[in-house]
Each structure stands twice: as C-alpha cells, then as structure tokens.
Amino acid sequence: MNAPWKSGMAGNRDPFAAYICDDAALDVLRPVVIELGWQPEKCNKGGLRNAVQSLSVSASPNILLVDLSESGDPLNDINGLAEVCEPGTVVIAIGQVNDVRLYRDLLASGIHDYLLKPLSAGQLRDALNQAQAVFTAPRNQDGDGVKHHISTAIIGTRGGVGASTLATSLAWIFSEDHKSPTALLDLDVHFGTGALTLDLEPGRGLTDAIDNPSRIDGLFIERAMIRANDNLSILSAEAPINSPLMTDGAAFVQLEEEFRQAFEMTVVDLPRNMLINFPHVLSDVNLVILMAEMTLASARDTIRILSWLKTNAAHAHSLVIANKVQSGIAEISKADFEASIERQIDFSIPYDAKAAANAAKLGQTFAQANRSSKASAVIRQIGERVMGASSDEFSKNETGKKSLLGSFDLKSLMAKKDKAQPTHEPAE
Length: 428
Fold this sequence. Notes:
Blueprint: E1 16-20, H1 23-35, E2 43-45, H2 48-55, E3 63-67, H3 74-84, E4 90-95, H4 100-108, E5 113-116, H5 121-136, E6 150-156, H6 163-176, E7 182-186, H7 194-197, H8 205-211, H9 218-224, E8 226-229, E9 232-235, H10 250-262, E10 265-269, H11 272-277, E11 287-292, H12 296-312, E12 317-325, H13 334-341, E13 347-350, H14 353-362, H15 366-369, H16 374-388, H17 391-395, H18 410-420
Parallel strand pairs: 1-2, 1-3, 3-4, 4-5, 6-10, 6-11, 7-9, 7-10, 11-12, 12-13
Antiparallel strand pairs: 8-9
Helix pairs in contact: 2-3, 6-16
InterPro entries: CheY-like_superfamily, P-loop_NTPase, ParA/MinD_ATPase
Protein name: Pilus assembly protein CpaE
C-alpha cells in the first residue's frame, strides 16, 4: 500500500509530536524540541502502538517522531500507522535494530528517516531540521516534474580489467558530451582511483558519509562532492589502509537516494567485494555493466556474477563488456567465452596501452585524453547505449545464444587452451 504521507499537504495541525518508549530518549529529545520552538508536552510516552491509538482519534502532526523499539513487526505496524496519518505528515522512525534491509524497507514504505538508539541531540536536531525542510519544500502534484534518472553500476569480474577506467570515462562522457548532471561514486574506499584519474584530491566526503549517514542530505551532497567540471561531481575516498570499513551500508543507500534528486546520471564504480558485502547498493540501479577480459578466470567470474544478479538484482539490466581485446591473443576465443556465459558480449574494447599511458600523463579520463582512438569510440557507443536504450534493447541479449558446450565446463576450456599452446616438456 502507499503511505498517505507520501503526497499531499498538511493543513493547520500541530507542527510536531513524538511517541517514545523510554525515558532516556525522551530526556534527549525534549531540549531539542524546545530549541526548535515546539511544545515539549508533545513528546509522549509510548511507542508506535500508542501513536496509532492517539492518531486514530486526532489529527496527525506535520512532523511525527515514532519509536519502533517495542514493535515485533515494524513494517506491518508502519502500515497501520499509515492508515491513521493524514496526507503531508513527515515521519521519522527510531529504533534499536541496526539492519540496513529494515532501513531500506522503511524508506520504501514512505518513512523520511530511521534513527538508531541511543539518540544524540545533534542527530535529532539534524533529522528534525531535514524533516522541516522536506515539509516546507514545494511538492509536485501527480508526479509532474519528476526527473528521469539513470543509475549505472560498473563491476570488474577480475581486478585490473578496466572497470574504473570505464566508469570515469562514461561519467565524463555523460557530463560533457550529453551535458547531463552526473554523479560518480567510487566505492573502493581504500584504493579507489576515480579522483586520481580526474587529477583531483578525493576529499573526506565519502568517509564522512560512512561515519555519519544521518547527515546525508542535499546540502551535504553539495558540500562533500568534488566538482570535476560543470556537470560532473565525484564522491570518493582514500581511507587509511589501517582503518577497516566499519559500516552496515546505510550511507550508500542514502547517497544514492540523494543522487536521484540532484543528478540525472549516477555512475557507481563498484568493486566485487562491495557487491558481496552490500548487495543493497544495487537496489535502485537500472543497469549493471560487467567488465571482463578474455581469460578463463574472467569467464568463470562473469558466470558467477551474472547468476548472482539474476537472483539478487533481477530488476537491473546487464551489459557484458570485453576489455583489452587483442586480435589473435587470448586465453579463450570470443565464441567460447560467449558460449560459456550463455549470452553475447555486448561490446569489445580494443587494447591500447599507449592511449592508457597518455590519459594517465594528462590526468584525464581515457575517453577525454584519446578522443580519436578506436577504444574511445567503443566507450562512446556504450555511453550512447546507456543514455538512449529502452528496456527492450537492454534486455534483448539477456538470454543470448545457447551454450555450444551445454553447461559451462571449466575442464573443456582448459583443455582447449592447453591444446592451443605448444608444449616444451619432453614426451614420456
């Protein structure tokens, strides 16, 4: 069901009300409420159940803070709250469950934000100020003015296959050739090269977002992202390698949410380990580009990732790109590669070491530094596909041609590779 707080405007109702389970949270909340000019008496004892009972017989406030700590089924109970809330109410939930899937589902149900206990005054102040901004912002009626947004994730099937090279080039093409406001999110938090490729300092934006997800809003995005050109902004990091990544991934979800509001295009450079640890990053991605090379290991991992995508991100279309392709020099032929993954390779980018070195020397993306190269021409074709293809065009190669080998047979490909190479060992 659609939560009624998703649309409409509230009338002359109370500006704020809260339903909180414990005294400790109430003690933190009341001074913030007073500071914002609201009545502390509107901070009620009792959680979600009490909120539903009270609001079933009285008008809901403009901003509602509700505690889920005593709820056994938060999502179902939130639907009950939606039944008694009037249009225009901005709802902030608080709770003790630190689970990114719950966070994601709550946002999808229409909740504005979800805060974890124990609460802090700064955390509450930021959330309530953001809620006020949302409430007072102009609302589009019937979806008018909603921006079309394309989110693309680029994943390398192996390290060094060129996923980051393609990500930075596509982001630059979208921003320069198509003049589309574009966000580049480099999720290799310790070793990302997105900023380096663009000859920029990465800044602290991404690490700050990971450390403080509740701070992420439009203003944070504007301040934290590094501007590469008039239409391209990048968010990346160079986190100390003695500092492990300590996050449940909520920041990444919130960042993508804000990108949809601020940009027309999002390009996510997504390392394989981040895909495994934070699969929800693909929840709102339209297209996944798999970067591969013509090797046995890359064929194996292309199969594994495509299978994973069918199960975990079935909504997203996928493209398979073969990079660093050299005529007559490959572990696996194109025909065998396509047979093993049971679909066609969508694009093949030729190997051009000189062009890659030129881009690095100039501090520019590959496509920017090598406008006339054959490799750049293919990258631009990929960009055109992403910008202009319909869903049907994206999906026409999803099934591909049937495997010539039946199921993928690693031993068969190994035997083919060995047979093609002369042996230098003496015969027995």
